[in-house]
């Protein structure tokens, strides 16, 4: 498959809906017929649990195992460690081992490239790879930014502090300048939006003040306990409450991601023609 898109879902702020977005955007894309791989890049293993693995720490193979094999120059067998979810997405799980692995990365040559090299082997089988980052800007998140084509930043409207965003943008800009020039920012996804208190204008204005002209996705994910329930069940919102407002919002986000991609592809094609 040509043109696999790799999206890092990231925000160093905890609990803003990164994992929930990885699951539901992933399943959303799979429902349109795309082949999707979800990568859990968080030692908490929340994405792994959200996709039905009750005890991630007992898994024999995880993202840390795969990345270690890449460092050790070992061949990775087809489908190695990949979990197939009934809703049509594949998962590379994670668990607590990623914590120690990340510390050990410090001593590895080309330590920023390990995830990219790991995904390079898998890319051909997928249309989309979504990386669920941990809430930090450490080496694992840098690896995700190096591996990615673009970044999606989920954020609760109330948490959109200019300072937090500034730190994130600084990491992204640094990776873009030094390692991965093609990295794009898809935009900020507003999550857990409470329509009664959310003042979209104030938020957008404060974002503009960061000077980065950040795009905000038209799709907004409403606050709903139904969304919180899905992670316990190991299902997406589509399977849990398919006609609810959160499913509807994630469906809209899926469409927006696909539309943006289409636009991006057309643009690069016409740029090629000019050259
Ligand atoms: N739209 C929503 N409405 C209500 N609750 C939500 C919604 N989206 C996510 N949640 C809940 O909020 C909590 C945090 O969400 P999630 O785990 O997706 O965030 P995260 O950014 O991945 O967190 P972490 O930084 O710890 O990885 C979870 O309990 C989740 O079920
Ligand atoms: Mg998470």
TrEMBL record:
Residues 5-185 form the AAA domain. Pfam families: AAA_31 (PF13614). InterPro entries: AAA_dom (IPR025669), DNA_Partitioning_ATPase (IPR050678), P-loop_NTPase (IPR027417). It catalyses: ATP + H2O = ADP + phosphate + H(+). Gene3D superfamilies: P-loop containing nucleotide triphosphate hydrolases. Belongs to the ParA family. Dimerizes in the presence of ATP but not ADP; ATP-binding is required for double-stranded (ds)DNA-binding. Interacts with DnaA. This is Sporulation initiation inhibitor protein Soj.
């Amino acid at each position: 498959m040509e043109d696999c898109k790799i999206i890092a879902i990231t925000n160093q702020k905890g609990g803003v809906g990164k994992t929930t977005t990885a699951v539901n955007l992933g399943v959303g894309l799979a429902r349109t017929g795309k082949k999707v791989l979800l990568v859990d890049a968080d030692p908490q293993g929340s994405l792994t649990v959200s996709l039905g693995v009750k005890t991630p720490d007992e898994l024999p193979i995880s993202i840390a195992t795969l990345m270690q094999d890449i460092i050790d120059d070992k061949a990775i067998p087809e489908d190695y460690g990949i979990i197939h979810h009934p809703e049509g997405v594949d998962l590379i799980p994670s668990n607590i081992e990623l914590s120690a692995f990340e510390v050990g990365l410090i001593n590895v040559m080309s330590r920023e490239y390990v995830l990219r090299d790991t995904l390079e082997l898998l890319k051909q089988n997928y249309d989309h790879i979504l990386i669920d980052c941990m809430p930090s800007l450490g080496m694992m998140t840098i690896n995700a930014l190096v591996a990615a084509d673009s970044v999606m930043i989920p954020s609760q409207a109330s948490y959109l502090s200019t300072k937090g965003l500034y730190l994130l943008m600084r990491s992204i800009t640094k990776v873009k300048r030094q390692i991965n020039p093609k990295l794009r920012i898809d935009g900020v996804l507003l999550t857990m939006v409470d329509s009664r208190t959310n003042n979209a204008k104030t938020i957008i204005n404060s974002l503009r003040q960061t000077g980065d002209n950040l795009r905000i996705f038209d799709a907004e994910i409403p606050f709903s306990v139904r969304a919180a329930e899905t992670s316990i069940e190991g299902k997406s919102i589509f399977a849990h409450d398919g006609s609810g407002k959160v499913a509807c919002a994630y469906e809209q986000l899926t469409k927006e991601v696909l539309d943006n991609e289409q636009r991006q592809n057309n643009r690069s094609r016409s740029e090629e023609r000019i050259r």
